[in-house]
Design brief:
12 strands; alpha/beta; about 40% helix; single chain; about 15% strand; two-stranded antiparallel sheet
């Protein structure tokens, strides 16, 4: 009996692998033409049906139309990538903050979506102050509402025991996570989107191919301070002599801004930690290649959080722990009071009020002339208890194929 189950699992895995590879190639998810005119007018999204929406996603990723390219020509001085789900109120706050950022006209702003709506599209289409590119996660649960990578009705319920799952022969019976739970599509999507986005930006976005700087990664419920670019340039300059072995930059943290003026020009160096350095993190192409070498480990590690997975990779798959140069006074604020686990009682008006108070507290400390090292800690691997939620082999196969097709 066990042998038959093992054979059935192997055949299922091979079948999933074939389907996913075929899907990736035939839908041109990761393929773009050798030359893409980045100033062609954007193709209008068709929200009329699921099939039309899917075609719009693939066409947009293929065409890569850059808004405002004629208005702001030349190579980007800074690339920012925003991961967007479905919180338009917070996205509006982020866009408003970016419009006030110094030297914003030299930015390339990339919005990476896993939820597609006319409201969100209108917000992004309304950005006129810099170049803008929208990319779309093609394996969104919105596009696959009743099949993997969405929730297939034949999937095992989250809390069903493995014994009962094997008896009922639900699709993923053999693959619960480390805590005995079966996959939840909305939980797995964020980690998928983050990894796909990383590959697509560095490997397939034509407007980034000649870019030699760091890419700053944000989320829709972030808010940037006006001196973000000034501080980024100061960190790049400080890194040359003060921390040449720093792999990443962290322009944000989760601390309050009460001591902002005192800490405004202070930076520190340490090992990368999920709870401290996942806000306004900046990655170079060199570090991206290091992460690429850990594709299999990222995609099979049983934690649904992309950031906890990165912390696991630092010092395990990446033999030398990732070292970060971190701002002590955050240039990126976290405004969201709801997210993956809390869907109700979101109060963006509170976030707006909190931002106004923070800006008032920070105004005298913006644009410091130079940076000073406040503290230096050894970059060490920080082990943690994995959170599970990532035990399904279908997630592993899909995730690994983002890189394999490149």
């Amino acid at each position: 009996m066990r042998l038959r189950l093992q054979k059935r699992s192997l055949l299922a895995l091979l079948g999933v692998s074939f389907v996913l590879v075929t899907l990736l190639v035939t839908t041109r998810v990761l393929l773009v033409p050798d030359e893409v005119p980045i100033d062609r007018p954007p193709q209008r999204f068709d929200f009329g049906s699921l099939a039309a929406l899917s075609r719009s996603v693939y066409n947009a990723n293929y065409r890569q139309s850059v808004l405002n390219a004629d208005k702001f020509p030349g190579e980007p001085r800074l690339v920012l990538v925003v991961q967007v789900h479905n919180r338009p109120q917070y996205l509006r706050l982020l866009v408003a903050s970016l419009e006030k950022a110094a030297e914003v006209h030299g930015f390339l702003l990339i919005f990476s979506h896993d939820h597609f709506s006319e409201e969100i599209d209108a917000i992004v289409q309304g950005v006129t102050f810099c170049r803008v590119l929208q990319i779309y996660f093609p394996f969104s649960t919105q596009l696959y509402p009743a099949e993997f990578p969405g929730k297939d009705p034949r999937d095992c319920p989250r809390d069903m025991s493995k014994d009962n799952a094997l008896k009922t022969r639900c699709l993923n019976a053999a693959h619960p996570d480390a805590y005995g739970h079966y996959r939840e599509a909305f939980i797995t999507q964020t980690k998928h989107h983050w990894w796909w986005k990383l590959h697509f930006v560095w490997e397939r976005v034509q407007a980034v191919q000649g870019y030699g700087g760091f890419v700053i990664f944000l989320e829709e419920d972030n808010y940037v301070l006006p001196d973000l670019f000034h501080y980024y340039k100061s960190m790049i300059e400080f890194r040359k002599g003060g921390c040449p072995d720093c792999d990443m930059l962290a322009l944000g943290n989760h601390d309050a801004l009460t001591d902002f003026t005192t800490l405004s020009n202070k930076v520190s160096t340490t090992g990368w930690m999920s709870t401290k350095h996942n806000l306004g993190m900046a990655i170079s192409r060199e570090v991206y290649y290091k992460l690429m070498g850990c594709n299999s480990e990222y995609c099979t590690y049983d934690d649904y959080n992309w950031d906890w997975t990165l912390q696991h990779l630092s010092g395990t798959c990446i033999s030398k722990p990732v070292k970060v140069l971190a701002a002590q006074a955050s240039r990126v604020l976290h405004t969201g009071d709801c997210g993956l686990h809390q869907k109700e009682d979101c109060r963006p008006e509170w976030a707006s009020r909190k931002v106004e108070e923070a800006l008032l507290a920070a105004k005298d400390g913006l644009f410091p002339p130079s940076l000073v090292l406040k503290g230096a800690e050894a970059a060490e691997h920080k082990a943690h208890v994995k959170n599970g939620g990532w035990g399904d082999v279908r997630d592993h196969v899909l995730c690994k194929n983002y890189a394999k097709v490149l």
